[in-house]
Amino acid sequence: MSRDLPDGYEPGSPSLVRHGSHWRLHTPVEKTFTSPGKVAVQLAHAQTRICAIDLNLDHHLAVCTIQTADGSTVATTFLSGGKRVNGRRKWLLGRIARNRRKTGILAENEPDNVALWEKIRHVDEQVAHLISARIVHFARQHQASVLVFEHLGNLKPQKGRYSRRGNSKRAFWMKGRIFTNAKYKAWNEGMITSRVNPRNTSRECARCHGLIVRYHAKQGPEPAGYTPGAPLAWCPACGMKGHADRNASVVIGQRLRTRVHHQEKPRAPLLGTGERDEKSSGVVRSQDANSKGGPSRRRARRHGTGKGHGTAHEDHARMVAPSAIPRPLPLFSES
Questions:
Q1: Is the distance from CB of 255 to CB of 199 less than 8 angstroms?
Q2: Contacts (Cβ under 8 Å, ≥6 apart) of 177
Q3: pLDDT at residue 262 is higher than 90
C-alpha cells in the first residue's frame, strides 16, 4: 500500500465495487476491538453518556446534546448548512423540470438529465457523510458511547410544485443516509446506535413534558400558537424558553432512558382463579374446593346452574316443569 496503516489496523480482503460505469478496487482496513454492551447495560452505570441527535430540514441539519445517565445535559452543538443544501438542490430540480417541459414525453426506461441527477446525488452523499462524521466526532470528543436518533420512516413530501415536492423527498432521503452513515462510523469508534419513537418530540417540553409553543423572534410567543419549523420554543405550563431543536434533542435522550427503565421493571404476577397443589400432580383446585363451606348458590345461579332442571340442592330435587319424556308401558302385568 502507498501509505502506512495506524497501529492496530490490518488490511482486509480487497473487492471490486461498481460506481456508476466505473469499477473500483476497495481494500478494507480492519481493527479488532471489544464489542460494547447493550444500551440497558451501559445506562446502568452513572458515568455513561449518550449523544441525542435531532435531524432537521431547515438551517440546522442536526442538533446534538450530550446527556448523562441521570438526565443532565453536558454539551450542545448545532450543525448548520441546511439552507445552502436545500437551495442548491431546489435549483437543480428546477432545471430538470424546465428541461422535461421542453423535451415532452420520454420513452419508457429512458434516463433524462443524467448529469443533473448525478450532481444532486453527489451533493446529498457529501452532506450526509460530512454531517454524520461531525456527529460521531462530537460524541467521541465528549466520551459518549450511545447515539440516539428518531425513528423516521413515514415522512411524506409537501404538496406543491415539482421542485418543492422533490426537494422535500430528497431531504428526507438525506436524513436516512445521515443515520446510516453515522451508525457504521460510530461502530468503528466503539459506539452503538439506537432509535426512539418520534411522536411529538418537537411538541413536548423537556422540563415538564407539556405542549410547547414554537414561534419566531419577530412574532413573539402566543398561548395557543404553534408554527412548524420555528426556531424558538416556550412552554406555557412551566415557563421554559429556549431553542426548539435543542429541546427536541433533550426529549429524544429522555425517551431512551424512559424506555430502558421501563423494561427493567419486574412483571406483575398473573392473577389466576386456582392454585396448584404440587408441581408434579398438575391438578388445579378451584376456589370452591379451597373454601370451608359448600359451593356458592349465587355463583352457580349466575352461570346458569342454580336451581335448574334436575339440579339438586340440600339433599332434595325439584322439577320446575313436568318431564316431556314418554313413559314406557309395562309388557306384563304385575300380580
A1: no
A2: 124, 125, 128, 132
A3: no
